[in-house]
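Chain A, query sequence.
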Amino acid sequence: MTKTLRRISQILFLGLFLYIVFSATSRGLAIRNPFMKIDPLVAIATMLATRTMIHALFASVIILVSALLLGRVFCGWICPMGSVLDLSDKLFYRKPRRKDVQYRNLKFFILAGLIVTALFSMQAVYMLDPLSLLTRSIVLVFVAPVQMLLRTLKDLADAHAGGSGILASTSYFLSFKLGAWNFVAADQMFFRESLVFFAVFAVIIGLNSISRRFWCRNLCPLGALLGLFSRVPLLKRAVSTECIECGKCTRNCKMAAIPANPHLTRSVECIECFNCVPICPTSAESFRIRPKPEIRPETNIDLSRRQLLQGAAMGLAFAALVKVDPTNKYSRQVANVKLSSPALIRPPGSLPETAFINQCVRCGACMKACPSNGLQPALEEAGVEGLWTPVLVPKIGPCVQKCNACGSVCPTDAIRRFTFEEKSSLQIGIAMIDRSHCLAWGEQQECLTCNEYCSYQAVEVKKVNGVGVPVIDKAKCVGCGACENACPIQPVAAIRVFSMGDKRNEHGQDSSVKYY
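Chain A, predicted structure.
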């Protein structure tokens, strides 16, 4: 009965997680993912890195309290990553696999490294936090293919909707249901480096071939954090004197929390899945509130000081090397040479660069919510420290004027909420014209596409030699990139948006300066 309840819980929470990720803005749903907001690892690392108290993440205390009282129940009953691993185990792996308890301490060393990097104002938790990793994988790997599949199904349904019979009825139903998802009818989405993110996700799934929940057992830093809080929980596994030491519980424990002596339990590893209870032939196992110590001795976590120092040293080395990389500082000058990328265009409302890269957990929620698909994971634009943070790529899609979805879905306030009225003063860049490529300026041809597509009336028309040519009004231009996206000159547009003049977190100031 308990096992069935746990599976129902896993299915419900995984379904809710997927619904929130896929439905963001496609059904008018623009909320901050509650799973990210209750992630204590994200909360601790982000607040350490930014040296600020982020109220949006205070709800993560609930998960820490649950670990103190009930153990790692989050990992066994709620965590979407754990549910995905259990599901993949059912689908792909049937044969017994060897135990790998010798690696279980690795996750604690990873946790130590991540905390140390945060102490040195370096955000690195996004790399291995399970909720950030899973959200990013779904958004950047699976959203676009699922959209393509649903679009194909809708086209087939539309083609048979006018007929009769079961096929036509099914087609009509599918067409009606799929049509309710706005992103199905939208232009096909795609994301840069999706194969890289798929490879990372595939490796995590593939590690299940070594042991069940290999990721959870050995690598998950969130599991390590919850394990530290679960050393002495109120709800504990109890083994009575009726135990015949058959070894079934040891062999079937997916977290290797039960050693060779079945009377022992590694509390920091146990996820309260209760799988050991129904398989016990003598019903000697149970979970109780504060069981008698003599029927449930525990094993302690075995961490050497030397290994913890090694993990911390690795985190320190990583933070130090990234920090001294000159390509990582926004508008930084080294030897009087500016090294920031002119293509580093952030979403409106996002924090100043240093705070932004430390508060952004690279979950990809803003990229999924962007209606134009213009927000993409940063590659070389932001350096190593800003890897995978969102950047606007205008030639893929502009920043739509009547849209504030990115600020609405950001779980850590790295992108602040803003209204449509405020957006006109949130300058994310400046459009500039390359006269040598512009048809109007260089070829004296009639072309004012940028003027037609500018939503802010920032592109004015000036007569030069009897031909209308575009002129950029700095006071009105916010750097949305609609002009660059619409420019007929390809592959490099004649009008492009650059990050100069970035006031994305400030109210713009009036200026009469115009760029030609």
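The CA atoms of residues 189 and 243 lie 57 Å apart. Residues 2-136+198-295 form one domain.
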